Amino acid sequence: MSDVLHKKFYELNLTDRLTQLSRESGVPLDELKVLSGNGGLSADQADHMVENAVGVFGLPLGVARNFLVNGREVLVPMAVEEPSVIAGASFMAKLARQGGGFTASASAPEMIGQLQVLDVADLKEASTKLDGHRAELLEMASAVDPVLVRYGGGARDLQVRLIEQSAIGPFLVVHLVLDVRDAMGANAINTALERIAPRVAEISGGRVHLRILSNLADRRLASAACTIPLEALAFEGYSAEKVRDGILEACAFAEADPYRAATHNKGIMNGVDAVVLATGNDWRAVEAGAHAYSARSGRYTSLSTWSKDAQGNLCGLLEMPMAVGIVGGATRVHPAAQAALKLMKVTTGAELAEIIVSVGLAQNLAALRALATEGIQRGHMSLHARQIAAAAGARGDQIEKLAQQLVLEKTIRAERAEEILKEWRK
Ligand code: MEV
Fold first, then answer.
1. HEC sequence for 57-99
2. pLDDT tens digit string along 271-296?
3. 266 an active-site residue?
């Protein structure tokens, strides 16, 4: 036991890590146990979630450490297959906490739903009529879900847009804005849209075609900021100024060039998706929103910005749509997602969004810091070497020893790993 207490988290075995998480979070070990093993979802449970189920698909689940978000310590579960992601986020969170951690916020959880209104005789007149019936339509939309209204949610706005040019000519689009509180909200908004569609057709004299939410959830934004004290940036042979300026140059590249911006944003999504996935949320929705939002000016660009303050410290900012919830959908039925939410101690969807965007910013910093200095391969290689070592048949402590040997020899290849193992076994 005393040995366990002196070890770093990553040096513990899987069982001891879980015990430590339970101790740190106060969540009973029994409630966290579902996180260990093979994904916390049985084939029977999967059968109730999708059609034609034949089983479940596993991914590694790790926990990022050192996160301080709005002054609160958070243990962050991340489901991701890529090495270096969890270690990168944890390490950057450690640097960020030297500057007070992450300051994050989330806007009201307002989702946008769209109705495509076609075959309208007079677009202008129909638009004015729809505007005139705003209160009635909002009331109708809110009435769909009285529970949502009781929790403070419901319809907030109705906007009529004119699409002037399209392959089928001009048409109207009605946006329904619905506050979905702690749900992701796809079902709530789609149900409300289907309910008001016939009335919108009547009022406009047109035909309502598509009735579906928009993943460009730009009324449901989350943002995170952090300040990394200049001196925290120095490492090995790199001065703090060199690291900081290298990161600023890297960021300028992403801001100016969509080819780089796509990769820069992918680095952000490494962190974002891993938490979205671990909490049972819809990561395709978050991905779609992120990339559409980065192109909102008409040119695809970086989701984050990095700058220096008057003292020369490095300041990061990330803002993006974050349509995630803590009730309903897979977050409710997936036992591991439930345990992940307990571990994070989030009580609202907004709080979850704030943590996710903080992880995205940390992940972005991890990538930029590596790219601006030694490159990403060194960090990647040691973890890659562990995978090669395990695949070659190394077990237990042998995996780390063999991985280190492969890195030392700068030959991270399966044949060499097998050769070394053979030599050791002789
Ligand atoms: C790799 O998964 C992510 C990076 O490519 C991100 C980036 O280039 O900023 C390292």
1. CCCCEEEEEEEEECCEEEEEEEECCCCCHHHHHHHHHHHHHCC
2. 999 999 999 999 999 999 999 999 99
3. yes
Q: What is the pLDDT of residues 218-230, one digit of tens each?
A: 999 999 999 999 9
Strand partners, 157: 177
419 is catalytic: no
Where are any strands of DSSP class E within 302-391?
A: 304-308, 314-321
Q: Are 168 and 86 in contact (CB under 8 A)?
A: no
pLDDT at residue 3 in the model: 56
pLDDT at 5 over 70: no
Secondary structure letter of residue 411 according to DSSP: -
Note if 124 is an active site residue: no
- State how far Cα 179 lies from the chain centre: 21
Distance (Å) from CA 45 to ligand 1 centroid: 35
367 lines ligand 1 (CB under 6 A): yes
Find the distance separating the first CA and the last CA of the chain, reported in whole Å. 34
Q: Would you say 131 and 204 are in contact if contact means Cβ atoms under 8 Å apart?
A: no
Q: Domains along the chain?
A: 66-107+220-374 (3.90.770.10), 110-213 (3.30.70.420), 379-425 (1.10.8)
Query: pLDDT tens across 120-175, in order?
Result: 999 999 999 999 999 999 999 999 999 999 999 999 999 999 999 999 999 999 99
- Determine the Cα–Cα distance for residues 308 and 104; give it in Å rounded to an integer: 19
**Given this model, what pLDDT does residue 377 score?**
76
| Tokens describing residue 424 | 């050791």
Q: Which helix (H) or strand (E) holds 153?
A: none
**Does the structure show a pLDDT above 70 at 300?**
yes
Of the residues 133, 380, 384, 401, only one is catalytic, namely: 380
Q: What is the mean pLDDT of the chain?
A: 95
* Structure token digits, residue 302: 């970086």
Distance 372 CA to ligand 1 centre (A): 12
The tokens describing 188, both together, are: 């709530």
Which has more pLDDT, 383 or 326?
326
